Amino acid sequence: MKLINVLRKNCIVTGAELKNKDGALTEVAKTAKKSDILSEISEDRLFEALKEREKLGSTGFGNGIAIPHCRMEGVSDFVVGIITIPEGVDFDAIDDKKVKLIVFIIAPYEESDRHIKLLSAISQTLTKEGVIDEIMAAGDPDVLRENLLRHTRPDINGKDLSNGTMFHIFVQDENIFRELLEKLAGIETGSIAIVNTENAGAYLAKMPLFAGFWSDDSEKFSRIIIFVVNKELANETIRRIETLTGDLHEREDVLITLQEIAYTKGSLTTRV
């Protein structure tokens, strides 16, 4: 899937003035409705679907950015659009800052896997240095669209793993684990799985010889992320990990190992 094919030219609004979050979601529904793909979906249905998603947690993820999104029955393809609000709007963002940029996604209900990859790819693009300023400075919808596309990788959903590298990422910090999943889910050509594990201390503490070395919290959080990615993206994957963790040499709760893969075939879905 390519963002250029789903970022609809007629679904871009610059310089909107919105009073509150409901007003912002109403504007999203109104703007999304301009796409012929949603000709059979009413604005009210779009609004309600977006509103229902917000009940799970605000899609205003900080720094003036929100990515409201939803999956809907009867939608045949993705509709992505952009709305800029120079004065900002209250959106219940996680950092309590007003949202000035909305990038929305209306997705086919059955396409959760591609939806996740698209959502992650857009969020990663918007956190790159200077991207938001460049987008907000564009007063023309066509220029705004090109500014966003310039910073987004061409193919979001590639699956060529013929020259693959396998990561094992051992994580003992739950917050880092969640953030890593968000980063990794958007890497193209990636397949990902999670293994629930226990720290060695959880077992050693039960052995008479080692009793007393570990406290009752020895069975703390522990997961392994197994991630297969095209070899040429291995360095980029390490970079993304260390943007969250810092220098891995200085941590005692995250460990990564890599191995080259002689053969791969198939892929894994993120659907549940």
Q: Would you write up a description of this structure?
A:
- Strands 1, 2, 3, 4, 5 and 6 form a six-stranded mixed sheet that branches.
- The protein is elongated, with a radius of gyration of 21 Å.
- The longest helix has 15 residues.
- Helices cover 32% and strands 24% of the residues.
- Helix 2 crosses helix 3, helix 4 crosses helix 7 and helix 7 runs antiparallel to helix 9.
- By secondary structure, it is α/β, with parallel strands linked by helices.
- The protein is built from nine helices and ten strands.
- The model has no long low-confidence stretch (mean pLDDT 87).
- It has two domains: 148 residues, Mannitol-specific EII, Chain A (3-Layer(aba) Sandwich); 97 residues, Alpha-Beta Plaits (2-Layer Sandwich).
Main β-sheet: number of strands, strand sense, barrel status? 6 strands, mixed
- The number of helices is 9
Order of helices and strands: HEHHEEEEEHHHEHEHEHE
> How many β-strand stretches?
10
In total, the number of domains comes to 2
Radius of gyration: 21 Å
Per the principal axes of the C-alpha atoms, what is the gross shape?
Answer: elongated
Query: Unreliable segments (pLDDT under 50, ≥5 consecutive)?
Result: none
- Per CATH, the superfamily of the largest domain is Mannitol-specific EII, Chain A
Bin the helical content. 25-40%
CATH class of the largest domain: Alpha Beta
For the record, give the distance between the C-alpha atoms at the N and C termini, rounded to a whole number.
21 Å
CATH topology of the largest domain: Mannitol-specific EII, Chain A
User: How confident overall, as mean pLDDT?
Assistant: 87
- Backbone structural class: alpha/beta
